[in-house]
Amino acid sequence: MEEIKKVAVLCGGSSSEREISLQSGQGVYEAIYNLGYESDLIDFKDLSNLKELKIYDFIFIVLHGFEGEGGKLQKDLEDLNILYSGSGPEACSKTWNKKITKKILKENNINTPISISIEKFSYQVAENGLNIPLYDCFRPFNYLFLKPDADGSSIDIFKISDDESLKNAYKNCTNRKRGFLFEEYIEGRELTVTIINQECFPPIEIVTKNEFYDYDAKYISDDTLHIQAELSSDELKDIKSISLDAFNTLGCKGWARIDLFQDNDGKFYVIEVNTAPGMTAHSNVPKSGGFIGLSYKEVVQKIIDASI
């Protein structure tokens, strides 16, 4: 295998997570420079042709949204014989679409909340209300989540409790003309597990004062806490097992972040799998590495090593 000397950090782009991606890119770029590599920070929006990346030995992808996580970029890089971080095109394609992710998880007996999909969030869906057979698979329920089936920024996620909240979701939705999921609401704890090179880092529990972990809780609020999850040895074994199962079943490689809920009976449910997680100084991946004594740049090195 060729020695890696020159690394490009690919970030930015045009998704709703552009600003977070730029922050992540800056952090990774500085870490790679401090690790002794030659490094350039590249905004995907400024890249006119991927062939420009052939001068690099390795591409570190911290580009969010479809551009970085949908699989096309990975396929194009492979066609150009360029090494890159993280999962391949097929795994990215599967994990980018929550509907496909959940179908594969269910087929492989990996716990995930019950869900149904709709082609778009139409006026008719809002006006029909919740008292129709479409929602019978969830009954009885106090809440449902409504979320896009392909997005990672927590935009257009709504907690639905009645017909009125469904209509309000329709009014406040920024992009209704795409696929959505209605998903079972799991009462309990929200957790996330970083996996690098088949190793589960310490799980993080996300604690928010908001109704749920929405865009405000994720990116704006100073009250959201990301703490090392207090779990029994059996719970720790279970969450690592289900996270690795999801990672491997979906064909992931190198690194990823698995997001989960734990219900009040202690059962874990995989919500989604992120193949290009955030890497800001406050993001969960470097934070979980810190729990086992790894510096930010050491986490970055582990991701590079796991991807080649």
CATH architecture of the largest domain: 2-Layer Sandwich
Radius of gyration over C-alpha positions, nearest whole angstrom = 19 Å
Number of helical stretches of at least 4 residues:
11
Please report the distance between the alpha carbons of the first and last residues.
9 Å
- Assign the CATH class of the largest domain: Alpha Beta
Q: Structural class of the secondary elements? A: alpha+beta
Describe the structure.
With 308 residues, the protein is α+β, with helices and mostly antiparallel strands. It folds into three domains: 80 residues, Rossmann fold; 139 residues, ATP-grasp fold, B domain (D-amino Acid Aminotransferase, Chain A, domain 1, 2-Layer Sandwich), CATH 3.30.470; 70 residues, 2-Layer Sandwich (Dna Ligase, domain 1). Strands 8, 9, 10, 11, 12 and 13 form a six-stranded antiparallel β-sheet that branches. A four-stranded antiparallel β-sheet has the order 4-7-5-6, with helices on both faces. The mean pLDDT is 93.
Features:
308 residues, alpha+beta, Rossmann fold, D-amino Acid Aminotransferase, Chain A, domain 1, Dna Ligase, domain 1, 3 domains, 6-stranded antiparallel β-sheet, 4-stranded antiparallel β-sheet, 13 strands, 22% strand
Briefly, what is this?
The protein is 34% helix and 22% strand. The protein has 308 residues and is α+β, with helices and mostly antiparallel strands.
Tell me the layout of helices and strands:
Blueprint: E1 6-11, H1 18-34, E2 38-43, E3 58-61, H2 65-69, H3 72-79, H4 89-96, H5 98-107, E4 115-118, H6 123-128, E5 144-148, E6 158-160, H7 163-172, E7 180-184, E8 188-196, E9 199-200, E10 204-207, H8 215-220, E11 225-228, H9 233-249, E12 255-263, E13 268-274, H10 284-290, H11 296-307
Parallel strand pairs: 1-2, 1-3
Antiparallel strand pairs: 4-7, 5-6, 5-7, 8-9, 8-10, 8-12, 10-11, 12-13
